[in-house]
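FIELD: query
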Amino acid sequence: MQTAVRAALALGVAALAACGGGGEVVTAATAPAPVLRVEGRAAPQADDLLISSVKSRSAALAPVPARVALGPLAQSKQLGDTTGPMLVGAGRDVTATGTRERTLQQLNWRAGEAGAQVAAISFTAEEAHGLRLGVRVGALPGSAMLRVYSQARPDTVFQISGQEVLQRIERNRNAGDHSDAGRTWWTPDIGSAEVTLEIELPAGVPAGALDIAVPRVSHIFAALEIPQEQEVVSKINESDPCNLDATCYDAYANQRNAVARMLFVNDDGLTYACTGTLLSDASGSGTPYFLSANHCISSQTAASTLQTDWFYRSPTCNSRTLSSATTKRYNGATLLYASSSTDTSFLRLNDAPPAGTFFAGWDASAGAAATGTPVVGLHHPQADLLKISFGSVVGQSSCTSAGGTQVTCSGTSGNFYRVGWSQGTTQGGSSGSALFSSDGRYVMGTLYAGNAVCGVTTSADFYGRFDVAYNTALKQWLGTASAGARRPIYRFYNATTGAHFFTPSAQERDYVIATYPAFSYEGVAFYAYDASAAGQDVVYRFYNTTTGAHFYTISAAERNYVQMTYPAFKYEGPAWSAQAAAGGSATGIFRFYKPSTGTHFYTISAAERDFVIATYKDYNYEGVAYYAWTGN
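FIELD: result
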């Protein structure tokens, strides 16, 4: 949220501090027959412990790391603007790992399981409340594993496969960012001044083929981790005293569960906090659509760094401690639409939100928030525990950037609602939070700017109109049925056979994770349609009873040939559907063949394709097998 430089009357002008706008990004096709109002719904109760990015392991498996130490952050770099996205972390250069050569010199490799190699580097920033590492990637095997943890707790690790990191970088590049920032993966904030980055290379990959560096870190100087509910200690740097604890208002219990605190990193390594809201769609698909502000996240590169904190609130009314139900998600988002005209940022989260969250309803009808309409705001001011504000719409305004961090709002009509608060307020960190109808059933706007301050009820906040953003673009995702939506195809690496396994079934995914320890889960490989999807070509699946590997083909002729010629290949039927030819937004699935084992390898990542060609000389590149999608 942006604080006003001078107040404005209903017909006047307000110059408001802002954090900038941005162009529009639209990546979905227009869909017909949108609806104008959708009710909220609870998220399905699902146990995602098997596929969680946070893993438990034996501390004995952690390698002895090289160590890189940074001194305290200069005080001047901690003096961030308290308006707009709340600045909570500063970028710092790291000389010791600034280049590929220096980083490789730090890595002391030792033998791991199944022929793998493992090495680690520990980074410490004095007086930091947290640390995010900017890992710049040039070349990385898809079946590598990257782990992030603290030396104090080496048995609890955040884990991500190389192919997932490559996907995030490729998504940035496809959105037009070919800079170093676009090929940087930011590790999650685990709330520690010391962070260890561990890298595990699969058998057969020479360490010299790795091309990564950590030229920059984000030093978290704000106390974002606060006492749990069993610790009766007040939060440090709490928001202004007139903010109301949202836990005290059970009439909004569902809506509280739709709101998340956001942390993200910009190109300079600065970490910011904002607020976002989970939205339902017309078909109730459970797709994790997420609404926030353009002046928070306006690029895919920033969206890739997104970390969300759910149920980030007090356990009981005014307890001033953090609920033990608080849950983190680390894996970023796909930016679907960003526009400064309504200050809208609309994303699809890469992680499913935790069980117990709520998909908020919304109202895109033009008169949903007429002057005098009572409204409610749910937000994280100063990155604090969830707060609630009560007020009403006092009019509309036209808002434009006035240069730098300033925004000018004026007039009695336009793309922004002018809201006055009778109870509570908003602050930096509230940016991007949703404006709800007074009963909480419908989202109607997104917080952009304002003069709101404790004790001054005549000051106004400005919210981008949801109906305008919806009719411009969001109806493509929110307002139409999604019966034919693409589904994720999950990927495993079998360390025993050296082959990969793919499945569209979450049930089969979970069964493999629980039953076959030799299969390392590597996340979502790509997206495709159900095998029965009309207008698509079926991909067929075989199981090689001799090697234990699977084979996939979209060619009916090749399917028939394999059935006639190779009795060891057991035909398992249609697996999913994709495109046999290029077209639309589909991307090539690249295919390799390894003669020594008789196995095939598939990837949608051009970076992984290039790594395999350069590194694995025993793999024959066979070109594009078919075409699938990098998102749903």
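FIELD: remark
Residues 3-31, 231-237 have pLDDT under 50 and may be disordered.
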